[in-house]
Amino acid sequence: MAQLPDGDPAPRDGALPASALDAARPLSLYVHVPFCRVRCGYCDFNTYTPSELGDLSPTTYLGAAIAELDLAARILGRRRVDTVFFGGGTPTMLPDAQLAGLLGAISERFELAPGAEVTTEANPESVTPAYFETLREAGFTRISLGLQSVVPHVLGVLDRQHTPRRGLEAAGWARDAGFQHISLDLIYGTPGESVDDWRASLDAVAATSVDHVSAYSLIVEEGTRLASRVRRGERPMPDEDDLADKYVIADDTLGALGFANYEVSNWARPGGECRHNLAYWRGADWWGIGPGAHSHVGGVRFWNRKHPRSYAASLAAGESPALAREVLGEEERRVERVLLELRLADGVPLNVLTASERGRLPQFVGQGLAVVEGEHLALTRAGRLLADGVVRDLLD
Asked: Residue 42's closest CA among 217, 178, 195, 254?
Protein backbone atom coordinates (compact mmCIF):
# COMPACT_ATOMS: atom_id res chain seq x y z
CA MET A 1 0.00 0.00 0.00
CA ALA A 2 1.08 3.59 -0.63
CA GLN A 3 2.96 5.17 2.26
CA LEU A 4 1.75 8.28 4.03
CA PRO A 5 3.78 11.43 3.34
CA ASP A 6 6.09 13.05 5.84
CA GLY A 7 4.92 16.07 7.79
CA ASP A 8 4.95 17.87 11.10
CA PRO A 9 3.32 16.14 14.09
CA ALA A 10 -0.39 16.90 14.27
CA PRO A 11 -1.82 18.31 17.53
CA ARG A 12 -3.36 15.60 19.68
CA ASP A 13 -6.57 17.59 20.06
CA GLY A 14 -6.81 18.12 16.27
CA ALA A 15 -6.79 21.91 16.62
CA LEU A 16 -6.30 24.00 13.49
CA PRO A 17 -4.83 27.50 13.18
CA ALA A 18 -7.42 30.24 13.48
CA SER A 19 -6.45 31.39 9.98
CA ALA A 20 -7.73 28.08 8.57
CA LEU A 21 -11.20 28.35 10.10
CA ASP A 22 -13.38 30.31 7.71
CA ALA A 23 -17.00 29.16 7.88
CA ALA A 24 -17.77 30.96 4.61
CA ARG A 25 -15.68 28.54 2.54
CA PRO A 26 -17.41 25.52 0.98
CA LEU A 27 -16.85 22.27 2.90
CA SER A 28 -16.91 18.68 1.69
CA LEU A 29 -16.67 15.47 3.70
CA TYR A 30 -14.96 12.28 2.59
CA VAL A 31 -15.65 9.05 4.51
CA HIS A 32 -13.15 6.24 3.97
CA VAL A 33 -14.56 2.74 4.49
CA PRO A 34 -11.49 0.46 4.49
CA PHE A 35 -13.15 -2.93 3.98
CA CYS A 36 -12.89 -5.15 0.90
CA ARG A 37 -13.95 -8.74 0.44
CA VAL A 38 -10.72 -9.39 -1.47
CA ARG A 39 -7.94 -7.04 -2.53
CA CYS A 40 -7.67 -6.59 -6.28
CA GLY A 41 -4.22 -7.37 -7.63
CA TYR A 42 -3.60 -3.84 -8.96
CA CYS A 43 -4.87 -1.93 -5.91
CA ASP A 44 -2.61 -0.12 -3.43
CA PHE A 45 -5.40 1.73 -1.59
CA ASN A 46 -5.63 1.63 2.20
CA THR A 47 -7.98 -1.36 2.35
CA TYR A 48 -8.21 -4.54 4.41
CA THR A 49 -9.90 -7.90 4.00
CA PRO A 50 -11.70 -9.61 6.92
CA SER A 51 -8.80 -12.03 7.44
CA GLU A 52 -6.38 -9.09 7.80
CA LEU A 53 -8.50 -7.30 10.38
CA GLY A 54 -9.26 -10.28 12.60
CA ASP A 55 -11.52 -9.19 15.45
CA LEU A 56 -11.65 -5.53 14.38
CA SER A 57 -15.30 -5.34 13.38
CA PRO A 58 -17.24 -2.88 11.23
CA THR A 59 -19.03 -1.85 14.41
CA THR A 60 -15.71 -0.69 15.91
CA TYR A 61 -14.98 1.23 12.73
CA LEU A 62 -18.39 2.91 12.78
CA GLY A 63 -17.93 4.02 16.37
CA ALA A 64 -14.54 5.50 15.52
CA ALA A 65 -15.85 7.25 12.40
CA ILE A 66 -18.65 8.86 14.38
CA ALA A 67 -16.14 9.92 17.05
CA GLU A 68 -14.10 11.63 14.33
CA LEU A 69 -17.24 13.36 13.06
CA ASP A 70 -17.72 14.69 16.59
CA LEU A 71 -14.12 15.95 16.56
CA ALA A 72 -14.58 17.63 13.18
CA ALA A 73 -17.78 19.31 14.34
CA ARG A 74 -16.08 20.63 17.49
CA ILE A 75 -13.24 22.14 15.46
CA LEU A 76 -15.17 23.41 12.44
CA GLY A 77 -18.52 24.22 14.02
CA ARG A 78 -21.79 23.45 12.28
CA ARG A 79 -20.43 24.20 8.82
CA ARG A 80 -22.53 23.82 5.71
CA VAL A 81 -21.54 20.72 3.75
CA ASP A 82 -22.00 20.83 -0.03
CA THR A 83 -20.80 17.32 -0.91
CA VAL A 84 -20.24 13.99 0.87
CA PHE A 85 -18.33 11.09 -0.67
CA PHE A 86 -18.09 7.56 0.76
CA GLY A 87 -15.08 5.79 -0.72
CA GLY A 88 -12.88 2.86 0.02
CA GLY A 89 -12.37 0.10 0.04
CA THR A 90 -15.92 -0.93 -0.55
CA PRO A 91 -18.42 1.22 1.36
CA THR A 92 -21.22 -1.09 0.26
CA MET A 93 -19.69 -3.93 2.26
CA LEU A 94 -21.38 -2.22 5.21
CA PRO A 95 -25.04 -3.17 5.65
CA ASP A 96 -27.28 -0.61 3.97
CA ALA A 97 -28.69 0.57 7.32
CA GLN A 98 -25.17 1.23 8.66
CA LEU A 99 -24.11 3.21 5.59
CA ALA A 100 -27.35 5.19 5.75
CA GLY A 101 -26.74 5.71 9.47
CA LEU A 102 -23.34 7.27 8.78
CA LEU A 103 -25.00 9.83 6.52
CA GLY A 104 -27.53 10.45 9.28
CA ALA A 105 -24.69 11.06 11.73
CA ILE A 106 -23.24 13.64 9.34
CA SER A 107 -26.54 15.49 8.98
CA GLU A 108 -26.88 15.62 12.78
CA ARG A 109 -23.51 17.35 13.15
CA PHE A 110 -23.33 19.48 10.02
CA GLU A 111 -25.76 21.38 7.86
CA LEU A 112 -26.25 19.52 4.60
CA ALA A 113 -26.78 22.16 1.92
CA PRO A 114 -30.01 22.07 -0.09
CA GLY A 115 -29.27 19.85 -3.07
CA ALA A 116 -26.08 18.49 -1.49
CA GLU A 117 -24.37 15.80 -3.55
CA VAL A 118 -24.00 12.54 -1.59
CA THR A 119 -22.03 9.80 -3.38
CA THR A 120 -21.01 6.29 -2.48
CA GLU A 121 -18.66 4.06 -4.37
CA ALA A 122 -20.09 0.57 -4.90
CA ASN A 123 -18.78 -2.71 -6.23
CA PRO A 124 -21.36 -4.56 -8.33
CA GLU A 125 -21.16 -7.78 -6.31
CA SER A 126 -21.90 -5.97 -3.02
CA VAL A 127 -25.24 -4.36 -3.93
CA THR A 128 -28.85 -5.35 -4.63
CA PRO A 129 -31.90 -3.39 -5.78
CA ALA A 130 -33.11 -3.17 -2.17
CA TYR A 131 -29.70 -1.83 -1.06
CA PHE A 132 -29.93 1.05 -3.52
CA GLU A 133 -33.49 1.80 -2.46
CA THR A 134 -32.39 2.15 1.16
CA LEU A 135 -29.58 4.53 0.21
CA ARG A 136 -31.85 6.66 -1.96
CA GLU A 137 -34.40 6.97 0.83
CA ALA A 138 -31.62 7.97 3.23
CA GLY A 139 -30.57 10.90 1.03
CA PHE A 140 -27.79 9.53 -1.18
CA THR A 141 -27.91 11.19 -4.60
CA ARG A 142 -25.10 9.59 -6.61
CA ILE A 143 -23.64 6.10 -7.18
CA SER A 144 -20.13 5.41 -8.49
CA LEU A 145 -19.85 1.81 -9.70
CA GLY A 146 -16.51 0.07 -10.07
CA LEU A 147 -17.13 -1.68 -13.39
CA GLN A 148 -13.51 -1.54 -14.70
CA SER A 149 -14.23 -3.77 -17.74
CA VAL A 150 -16.93 -5.91 -19.33
CA VAL A 151 -14.43 -8.45 -20.69
CA PRO A 152 -14.07 -11.59 -18.53
CA HIS A 153 -10.35 -12.20 -19.11
CA VAL A 154 -9.57 -8.54 -18.32
CA LEU A 155 -11.56 -8.74 -15.09
CA GLY A 156 -9.63 -11.91 -14.27
CA VAL A 157 -6.25 -10.18 -14.61
CA LEU A 158 -7.53 -7.39 -12.35
CA ASP A 159 -8.82 -9.94 -9.78
CA ARG A 160 -12.30 -8.45 -9.98
CA GLN A 161 -14.98 -10.67 -8.47
CA HIS A 162 -18.07 -9.58 -10.41
CA THR A 163 -19.25 -10.71 -13.83
CA PRO A 164 -19.61 -8.19 -16.68
CA ARG A 165 -23.38 -8.52 -16.62
CA ARG A 166 -23.59 -7.85 -12.88
CA GLY A 167 -21.95 -4.46 -13.27
CA LEU A 168 -24.38 -3.34 -15.94
CA GLU A 169 -27.34 -4.71 -13.98
CA ALA A 170 -26.23 -2.72 -10.94
CA ALA A 171 -26.36 0.50 -12.96
CA GLY A 172 -29.94 -0.34 -13.90
CA TRP A 173 -30.86 -1.08 -10.28
CA ALA A 174 -29.51 2.30 -9.22
CA ARG A 175 -31.56 4.03 -11.88
CA ASP A 176 -34.68 2.10 -10.88
CA ALA A 177 -34.12 3.17 -7.26
CA GLY A 178 -34.32 6.80 -8.33
CA PHE A 179 -30.66 7.78 -8.71
CA GLN A 180 -30.30 10.41 -11.44
CA HIS A 181 -26.51 10.49 -11.19
CA ILE A 182 -24.63 7.24 -11.80
CA SER A 183 -20.96 6.88 -12.69
CA LEU A 184 -18.99 3.97 -14.09
CA ASP A 185 -15.29 3.56 -13.32
CA LEU A 186 -13.27 1.96 -16.12
CA ILE A 187 -9.61 0.93 -16.37
CA TYR A 188 -7.69 0.66 -19.63
CA GLY A 189 -4.30 -0.83 -20.38
CA THR A 190 -4.66 -4.07 -18.43
CA PRO A 191 -2.11 -6.65 -19.64
CA GLY A 192 -3.77 -8.69 -22.39
CA GLU A 193 -6.51 -6.12 -23.09
CA SER A 194 -6.90 -5.59 -26.82
CA VAL A 195 -8.27 -2.47 -28.48
CA ASP A 196 -11.46 -4.42 -29.21
CA ASP A 197 -11.71 -5.36 -25.51
CA TRP A 198 -11.48 -1.69 -24.59
CA ARG A 199 -14.04 -0.72 -27.19
CA ALA A 200 -16.41 -3.34 -25.77
CA SER A 201 -16.22 -1.72 -22.33
CA LEU A 202 -16.87 1.71 -23.79
CA ASP A 203 -19.72 0.41 -25.93
CA ALA A 204 -21.33 -0.98 -22.77
CA VAL A 205 -21.73 2.60 -21.55
CA ALA A 206 -24.18 3.20 -24.39
CA ALA A 207 -26.37 0.39 -23.06
CA THR A 208 -26.75 2.10 -19.67
CA SER A 209 -28.30 5.35 -18.52
CA VAL A 210 -25.23 6.57 -16.63
CA ASP A 211 -24.27 10.24 -16.84
CA HIS A 212 -20.61 10.01 -15.79
CA VAL A 213 -17.59 7.89 -16.71
CA SER A 214 -14.16 7.86 -15.09
CA ALA A 215 -11.50 6.12 -17.20
CA TYR A 216 -8.05 5.60 -15.74
CA SER A 217 -4.95 4.04 -17.26
CA LEU A 218 -3.68 1.07 -15.29
CA ILE A 219 -0.72 1.95 -13.10
CA VAL A 220 1.43 -0.88 -11.78
CA GLU A 221 1.92 0.16 -8.15
CA GLU A 222 4.81 -1.21 -6.12
CA GLY A 223 3.77 -3.69 -3.45
CA THR A 224 0.77 -5.03 -5.36
CA ARG A 225 0.32 -8.57 -6.68
CA LEU A 226 0.28 -7.21 -10.21
CA ALA A 227 3.67 -5.54 -9.68
CA SER A 228 5.08 -8.89 -8.51
CA ARG A 229 3.72 -10.63 -11.60
CA VAL A 230 5.21 -7.98 -13.88
CA ARG A 231 8.55 -8.23 -12.11
CA ARG A 232 8.55 -12.03 -12.60
CA GLY A 233 7.74 -11.62 -16.28
CA GLU A 234 4.29 -13.19 -15.95
CA ARG A 235 2.57 -10.00 -17.17
CA PRO A 236 3.88 -7.21 -19.43
CA MET A 237 4.04 -3.61 -18.29
CA PRO A 238 1.32 -1.41 -19.82
CA ASP A 239 2.57 0.12 -23.05
CA GLU A 240 2.57 3.94 -23.18
CA ASP A 241 1.54 4.09 -26.86
CA ASP A 242 -1.28 1.62 -26.22
CA LEU A 243 -2.48 3.73 -23.29
CA ALA A 244 -2.46 6.89 -25.40
CA ASP A 245 -4.38 5.18 -28.22
CA LYS A 246 -7.01 3.92 -25.78
CA TYR A 247 -7.39 7.37 -24.21
CA VAL A 248 -8.14 8.84 -27.63
CA ILE A 249 -10.63 6.03 -28.32
CA ALA A 250 -12.35 6.77 -25.00
CA ASP A 251 -12.55 10.49 -25.73
CA ASP A 252 -13.97 9.90 -29.20
CA THR A 253 -16.45 7.23 -28.12
CA LEU A 254 -17.73 9.05 -25.07
CA GLY A 255 -17.92 12.33 -26.96
CA ALA A 256 -20.13 10.65 -29.57
CA LEU A 257 -22.42 9.52 -26.73
CA GLY A 258 -22.87 13.06 -25.44
CA PHE A 259 -20.21 13.04 -22.72
CA ALA A 260 -17.80 15.96 -22.40
CA ASN A 261 -14.33 15.66 -20.89
CA TYR A 262 -14.31 18.03 -17.89
CA GLU A 263 -11.16 16.67 -16.19
CA VAL A 264 -8.33 14.67 -17.72
CA SER A 265 -9.78 11.27 -16.71
CA ASN A 266 -13.47 12.17 -16.31
CA TRP A 267 -16.36 12.63 -18.71
CA ALA A 268 -19.95 13.64 -17.97
CA ARG A 269 -23.20 14.42 -19.66
CA PRO A 270 -24.40 17.99 -18.94
CA GLY A 271 -25.04 18.30 -15.20
CA GLY A 272 -23.43 14.95 -14.39
CA GLU A 273 -20.05 16.25 -13.24
CA CYS A 274 -18.90 14.99 -9.82
CA ARG A 275 -19.16 18.08 -7.63
CA HIS A 276 -17.16 16.43 -4.84
CA ASN A 277 -14.13 15.82 -7.04
CA LEU A 278 -14.45 19.32 -8.48
CA ALA A 279 -14.14 20.60 -4.91
CA TYR A 280 -10.79 18.77 -4.64
CA TRP A 281 -9.51 20.11 -7.94
CA ARG A 282 -10.58 23.66 -7.10
CA GLY A 283 -8.94 23.68 -3.69
CA ALA A 284 -12.03 23.78 -1.48
CA ASP A 285 -12.01 22.61 2.14
CA TRP A 286 -12.62 18.95 2.89
CA TRP A 287 -12.33 16.76 5.96
CA GLY A 288 -11.49 13.09 5.46
CA ILE A 289 -13.02 10.69 7.97
CA GLY A 290 -11.48 7.25 8.46
CA PRO A 291 -8.11 5.44 8.59
CA GLY A 292 -5.52 6.99 6.30
CA ALA A 293 -7.96 9.67 5.12
CA HIS A 294 -6.49 13.02 4.04
CA SER A 295 -7.99 16.45 4.75
CA HIS A 296 -7.43 20.01 3.59
CA VAL A 297 -8.85 22.91 5.57
CA GLY A 298 -7.82 26.49 4.90
CA GLY A 299 -4.36 25.63 3.58
CA VAL A 300 -3.66 23.01 6.26
CA ARG A 301 -3.29 19.47 4.93
CA PHE A 302 -3.40 16.60 7.45
CA TRP A 303 -3.78 12.84 7.30
CA ASN A 304 -4.95 10.12 9.66
CA ARG A 305 -3.22 7.09 11.05
CA LYS A 306 -3.29 4.42 8.41
CA HIS A 307 -4.33 1.19 10.11
CA PRO A 308 -7.95 0.88 11.31
CA ARG A 309 -6.72 -0.42 14.66
CA SER A 310 -4.47 2.56 15.49
CA TYR A 311 -7.05 4.94 14.02
CA ALA A 312 -9.77 3.58 16.32
CA ALA A 313 -7.42 3.47 19.33
CA SER A 314 -6.59 7.19 18.99
CA LEU A 315 -10.25 8.17 19.01
CA ALA A 316 -11.05 5.78 21.87
CA ALA A 317 -8.38 7.61 23.88
CA GLY A 318 -10.05 10.95 23.15
CA GLU A 319 -7.35 12.08 20.73
CA SER A 320 -7.35 13.13 17.10
CA PRO A 321 -6.46 10.31 14.70
CA ALA A 322 -4.37 12.74 12.63
CA LEU A 323 -0.79 11.49 12.35
CA ALA A 324 0.85 14.51 10.71
CA ARG A 325 0.13 17.70 8.84
CA GLU A 326 1.64 20.48 6.76
CA VAL A 327 0.71 24.13 6.59
CA LEU A 328 0.93 25.25 2.98
CA GLY A 329 2.59 28.54 2.18
CA GLU A 330 1.27 30.99 -0.41
CA GLU A 331 3.60 29.73 -3.15
CA GLU A 332 2.79 26.08 -2.38
CA ARG A 333 -0.91 26.83 -2.68
CA ARG A 334 -0.35 28.63 -5.98
CA VAL A 335 1.61 25.73 -7.43
CA GLU A 336 -1.07 23.33 -6.29
CA ARG A 337 -3.70 25.42 -8.07
CA VAL A 338 -1.76 25.08 -11.31
CA LEU A 339 -1.28 21.33 -10.83
CA LEU A 340 -4.96 20.70 -10.18
CA GLU A 341 -6.85 23.30 -12.18
CA LEU A 342 -4.91 22.72 -15.37
CA ARG A 343 -6.42 19.22 -15.38
CA LEU A 344 -9.88 20.78 -15.73
CA ALA A 345 -11.48 21.68 -19.06
CA ASP A 346 -11.86 25.27 -17.78
CA GLY A 347 -8.12 25.40 -17.18
CA VAL A 348 -6.23 27.70 -14.82
CA PRO A 349 -6.61 31.51 -14.70
CA LEU A 350 -3.66 33.28 -16.28
CA ASN A 351 -3.30 35.53 -13.24
CA VAL A 352 -2.32 32.48 -11.17
CA LEU A 353 0.82 32.11 -13.30
CA THR A 354 4.02 34.06 -12.76
CA ALA A 355 5.36 36.37 -15.44
CA SER A 356 8.02 33.83 -16.42
CA GLU A 357 5.43 31.05 -16.61
CA ARG A 358 3.21 33.19 -18.84
CA GLY A 359 6.27 33.77 -21.00
CA ARG A 360 6.46 30.03 -21.69
CA LEU A 361 2.88 29.77 -22.95
CA PRO A 362 3.66 30.38 -26.65
CA GLN A 363 5.72 27.18 -26.81
CA PHE A 364 2.85 25.05 -25.45
CA VAL A 365 0.31 26.76 -27.70
CA GLY A 366 2.61 26.37 -30.67
CA GLN A 367 3.05 22.67 -29.98
CA GLY A 368 -0.73 22.21 -29.86
CA LEU A 369 -0.65 21.20 -26.18
CA ALA A 370 -2.60 24.15 -24.79
CA VAL A 371 -4.84 27.06 -25.75
CA VAL A 372 -5.43 30.45 -24.19
CA GLU A 373 -9.16 31.11 -23.99
CA GLY A 374 -10.05 34.48 -22.54
CA GLU A 375 -8.17 34.72 -19.24
CA HIS A 376 -7.57 30.96 -18.85
CA LEU A 377 -4.96 28.47 -20.00
CA ALA A 378 -6.46 25.09 -20.92
CA LEU A 379 -4.98 21.85 -22.22
CA THR A 380 -5.91 20.42 -25.60
CA ARG A 381 -6.46 16.67 -25.94
CA ALA A 382 -2.82 16.30 -26.94
CA GLY A 383 -1.92 18.25 -23.83
CA ARG A 384 -4.09 16.05 -21.63
CA LEU A 385 -2.09 13.05 -22.82
CA LEU A 386 1.07 14.79 -21.57
CA ALA A 387 -0.48 16.69 -18.65
CA ASP A 388 2.19 15.89 -16.05
CA GLY A 389 4.98 16.90 -18.42
CA VAL A 390 3.26 20.13 -19.43
CA VAL A 391 2.84 21.15 -15.81
CA ARG A 392 6.46 20.25 -15.02
CA ASP A 393 7.80 22.32 -17.90
CA LEU A 394 5.42 25.23 -17.25
CA LEU A 395 6.12 25.82 -13.56
CA ASP A 396 9.10 27.88 -12.42
From this structure: 217
